[in-house]
Design brief:
It contains 13 helices and 14 strands. The longest helix has 16 residues. A hairpin with a 5-residue loop joins β12 and β13.
């Protein structure tokens, strides 16, 4: 029997979300819609621009958002990551525990240094641009892995952002090997266009000879495949994974397998903030497939959950919101 539905590894980040104008984004010199890694001096420079704004602070990190979504839906999740012995680190550990996510952080002494954080800048068109200070998360290594829990999981999930960290990538790959040898399904999210542009070798290593589940959005898919021809993109993506989830914003999502494909329409909503949408989709989709639902049913749940998260500010939904979404989006299992 599997003890966990999902075992994930990724960067532990505390999100601070600010509402800004496009003019301010340009003044700060930030690449819109994408994630940019920043160092301590750049972080201080950017914070100077937003001292007059009050941020919303939440637990974050791509895989962190995914495991929390799965846990809130009723799944069992484990998250390997790294935080520092500081206020943000304490906040992050307590947040995971409050959401019912098991983690190595309760077994591992926190490091000296600073916990990773992400400035999420949301413009009036609902697009999010992220500036990530990894802090000690840049030093995430295989000491964070719990091999005994990986082998008791249904799915091992890798965050593509780890391709930017040599030790983080090595840890993800070691976990992948443990999972593969134990017959645990493998999942990967491409995470961001910047990872494809600058860290593709790391993503290739995580893909290896293929994974069971691959998550990407349309922009990432087009850049990965080097074409805007969606038929060529679909054909190329199918070679990377047994099941590909290809999210297309207001155009819904597509699920591709070797034998079948589904287009699942999106719920029509007014987008306010797209931060966390892809992470939410992945968490909901993986919850549903680990409970025995078909891929198109899992994608429908993912679409509903993602629509709810983009309809508000912030990267997370409440337990109540997700319970309600599950009740109307998933039929009872026969």
């Amino acid at each position: 029997m599997s003890h966990y539905d999902l075992y994930a590894i990724g960067n532990a980040l505390v999100d601070s979300e600010y509402e800004v104008s496009d003019a301010m984004l340009q003044k700060m010199g930030i690449s819109k819609r994408h994630m940019t890694l920043i160092d301590t001096p750049r972080r201080a420079e950017l914070l100077d621009h937003v001292t007059h704004l009050q941020p919303r602070q939440t637990g974050g990190g791509s895989a962190g958002n995914t495991v929390v979504a799965l846990a809130q839906l009723g799944g069992k999740a484990f998250y390997s990551c790294k935080v520092a012995h500081d206020n943000l680190g304490d906040f992050y550990v307590k947040d995971l525990q409050a959401q019912g996510v098991d983690t190595n952080l309760t077994h591992t002494r926190a490091s000296e240094g600073q916990t990773g954080s992400c400035m999420v800048l949301v413009t009036p068109d609902a697009e999010r641009s992220m500036c990530t200070f990894l802090g000690v998360s840049a030093e995430l290594d295989d000491a964070a892995l719990h091999a005994q829990d990986i082998v008791k999981s249904k799915i091992y999930y890798m965050e593509g952002y780890l391709a930017a960290s040599p030790t983080g990538l090595n840890a993800a790959l070691k976990g992948r090997q443990i999972a593969r040898e134990a017959g645990v399904a493998l999942a990967l999210t491409l995470s961001d266009v910047s990872m494809i542009q600058f860290c593709k070798a790391g993503l290739d290593a995580m893909l290896g000879d293929g994974v069971d589940y691959l998550f990407c959005n349309q922009e990432e898919a087009l850049v990965w495949c080097g074409t805007e021809d969606l038929e060529v993109v679909r054909s190329a993506l199918k070679k990377l994974a047994k099941t590909v989830c290809f999210t297309r914003g207001p155009d819904g999502s597509e699920v591709l397998t070797a034998d079948q494909s589904w287009h699942v329409p999106a719920e029509k909503v007014k987008a306010i903030d797209t931060n966390g949408a892809g992470d939410m989709f992945a968490g909901a989709f993986l919850y549903a497939v680990t409970k025995g639902y078909a891929p198109n049913q899992a994608a429908a749940l993912g679409n509903h959950a993602a629509a709810a998260v983009v309809s508000q500010h912030g990267n997370r939904l409440t337990l109540g919101q997700l319970s309600a979404i599950k009740a109307y989006a998933l039929p009872p299992l026969k």
